[in-house]
């Protein structure tokens, strides 16, 4: 290959479908499809170390707890571990009454018989038969023509039907998959599925499941949706058929394909937690379900403790979950950038004040708490962060409502720190910076004691007597003013000959209750007309303000 030139001419464009009157683009999804988890089959068969029986039991219990009512539990004719696992689930009566297990088989007699045997004594089961139908599979892999490939599907169906009859278990259902459907001519897929439907003879009461996979995803999701809509229009006995989809993620659009397919008429969706599965995975059922949730549709699966689900999944599969994974990744509810933080900060405040609980916070598609995440990490501070983010951390984690006027100065300070350490700062480190800079500021002056009183009951003037340590010397000041801050400022100016004015003042209580501490923020105008802030904390708000003045002066 010539360096720098990708050999794109080796690949062919996937053909469009002629469907000028397509209806699916105008549809919306208003209810959850029938979900079928394939974690224990398709997901498991893609693992470098497949789950052992104990891990499968843990995974099965997780899937039941999430609320799956149909669970493909394995490929029992292909592996003894799968066979043993299925037998154990049945023998130990681990399958709840409202859950149907599903088992996959190829269309070969001995495999079908073994599969049937694996589910003996179950109340309910779906036998899932597949064979590959695409041109390349027919010609290169199986070396069979269309009729012969169709016959494989039909013979398999008939055998399952007769074994079902012999078992007298009428609750055994049937699913057929024309594997490699995207690469199968649509009219041939219809022909083969129609033949299977004839062989099974379903009814509206006992429907057949026809599963149309993107075994390998080959087109944009709209083309897949067109194929599903066309298939739904032309398949025979539509009222006796459940159309199922099973999408993979080769082009990164597994979820989109399944969503558009549901709009196009599919009623059932197979997928796996966090998209585990062959190659780039199966359709991620967590994402699709939470997409529905975020649109106000009941997903009928419970992801309210996503961290716990992720933990069990990781343990059983030994797979990781990317920190950017939709809804579940470590960083997906976290903003580092200043403008996002500012908007989240404002949005969260507005959300708290709202009467309705309809969620509308910028950059957060759902409330992290709805999936069991906390607000602790929604804003994290690094060199990309801004004043809104820093203010959010100080208020939400430590109760300091830093005034807007002061936020840019503190944010610059924090940005300097993050740059100098080339790292993120923790909430604790941010609070320590704030304390060192504004509250426990080391400088020329230290307040040793302070008393505030009025000259007499009728006087509007306040007298402040303070003992101030000025480097090595202790100095007593006594001054009058319109209030404690005014009196203290007059006294300091007079005794120490410093030029400044109070330009800004704000206060609030730091905690609830009678002994709550108050915090005061003072901004002083200095000689070079720069505003410097200081912060003071005390049970007495006047003393807190005086401490804030001295902390600001110490920063001159
Ligand atoms: O991807 C696929 O086509 C499959 C079938 C066996 C359902 O996994
Ligand atoms: Zn698959």
Task: Fill in the keyword field for this structure.
single chain, 556 residues, alpha/beta, TIM Barrel, Double Stranded RNA Binding Domain, 3 domains, 8-stranded parallel beta barrel, 19% strand, elongated, binds 3-methyl-2-oxobutanoic acid, binds zinc ion
The helix fraction, in percent, is: 25-40%
- Low-pLDDT stretches are none
Averaged pLDDT? 95
CATH superfamily of the largest domain: Aldolase class I
How many E-type strands? Answer: 14
How many H/I helical runs?
17
Characterize the overall form: elongated
Q: Report, as a whole number of angstroms, the end-to-end distance.
A: 67 Å
Looking at the structure, the CATH topology of the largest domain is TIM Barrel
Rg estimate, integer Å: 34 Å
Our count of domains comes out at 3
Which strand order do you get reading across the main beta sheet? 1-2-3-4-5-6-7-8
CATH class of the largest domain: Alpha Beta
How much beta, percentage-wise?
A: 15-25%
Overview of the structural elements:
The protein has 556 residues and is α/β, with parallel strands linked by helices. It has helices spanning 39-45, 53-66, 80-91, 109-118, 135-142, 146-167, 186-200, 221-234, 254-263, 285-293, 306-317, 338-353, 387-398, 407-421, 427-439, 484-496, 541-553; strands at residues 34-37, 70-74, 100-106, 125-132, 172-179, 208-214, 241-247, 268-271, 445-454, 462-470, 473-481, 501-509, 518-525, 531-538. Strand 6, helix 8 and strand 7 form a beta-alpha-beta unit. Helix 4 packs parallel to helix 6. The two termini are 67 Å apart. Bound molecules: 3-methyl-2-oxobutanoic acid and zinc ion. The site of zinc ion has 7 residues, from loops.
């Amino acid at each position: 290959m010539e360096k720098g030139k990708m050999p794109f001419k080796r690949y062919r464009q996937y053909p469009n479908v002629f469907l000028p009157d397509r209806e699916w683009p105008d549809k919306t999804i208003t209810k959850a499809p029938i979900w079928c988890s394939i974690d224990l089959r398709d997901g498991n068969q893609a693992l470098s170390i497949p789950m052992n029986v104990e891990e499968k039991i843990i995974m099965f219990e997780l899937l039941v707890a999430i609320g799956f009512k149909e669970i493909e539990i394995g490929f029992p004719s292909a592996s003894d571990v799968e066979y043993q696992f299925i037998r154990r689930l049945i023998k130990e009566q681990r399958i709840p009454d409202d859950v149907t297990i599903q088992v996959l088989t190829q269309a070969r007699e001995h495999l079908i018989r073994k599969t049937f045997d694996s589910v003996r004594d179950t109340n309910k089961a779906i036998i899932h038969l597949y064979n590959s139908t695409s041109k390349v599979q027919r010609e290169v892999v199986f070396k069979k023509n269309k009729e012969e490939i169709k016959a494989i599907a039909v013979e398999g169906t008939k055998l399952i039907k007769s074994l079902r009859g012999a078992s007298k278990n009428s609750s055994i259902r049937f699913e057929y998959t024309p594997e490699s459907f995207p690469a199968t001519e649509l009219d041939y897929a219809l022909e083969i599925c129609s033949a299977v439907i004839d062989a099974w003879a379903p009814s509206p009461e006992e429907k057949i499941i026809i599963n149309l996979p993107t075994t390998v995803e080959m087109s944009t999701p709209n083309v897949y949706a067109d194929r599903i809509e066309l298939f739904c229009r032309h398949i025979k006995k539509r009222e006796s058929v459940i159309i199922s989809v099973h999408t993979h993620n080769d082009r990164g659009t597994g979820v989109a394909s399944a969503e558009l397919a549901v709009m196009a008429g599919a009623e059932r969706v197979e997928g796996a937690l966090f998209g585990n599965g062959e190659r780039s995975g199966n359709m991620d059922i967590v994402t699709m379900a939470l997409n529905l949730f975020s649109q106000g549709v009941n997903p009928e699966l419970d992801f309210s403790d996503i961290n716990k689900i992720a933990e069990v999944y990781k343990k059983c599969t030994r797979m990781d979950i990317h920190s950017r994974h939709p809804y579940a990744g470590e960083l997906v509810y976290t903003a580092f950038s200043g403008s996002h933080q500012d908007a989240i900060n404002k949005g969260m405040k507005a959300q708290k004040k709202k009467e309705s609980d309809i969620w509308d916070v910028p950059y957060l598609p759902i409330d992290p708490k709805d999936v069991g995440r906390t607000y602790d990490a929604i804003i994290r501070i690094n060199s990309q962060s801004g004043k809104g983010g820093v203010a959010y951390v100080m208020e939400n984690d430590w109760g300091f409502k830093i005034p807007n006027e002061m936020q840019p100065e503190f944010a610059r300070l924090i940005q300097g720190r993050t740059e100098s350490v080339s790292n993120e700062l923790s909430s604790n480190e941010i609070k320590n910076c704030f304390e060192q800079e504004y509250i426990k500021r080391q400088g020329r002056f230290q307040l040793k004691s302070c008393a505030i009183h009025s000259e007499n009951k009728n006087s509007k003037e306040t007298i402040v007597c303070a003992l101030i340590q000025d480097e090595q010397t202790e100095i007593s000041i006594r001054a009058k003013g319109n209030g404690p801050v005014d009196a203290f400022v007059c006294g300091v100016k007079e005794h120490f000959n410093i030029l400044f004015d109070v330009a800004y003042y704000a206060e609030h209580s730091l905690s609830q209750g009678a002994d709550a501490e108050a915090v005061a923020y003072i901004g002083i105008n200095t000689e070079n007309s720069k505003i410097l802030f200081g912060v003071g904390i005390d049970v007495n708000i006047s003393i807190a303000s005086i401490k804030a003045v001295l902390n600001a002066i110490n920063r001159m």
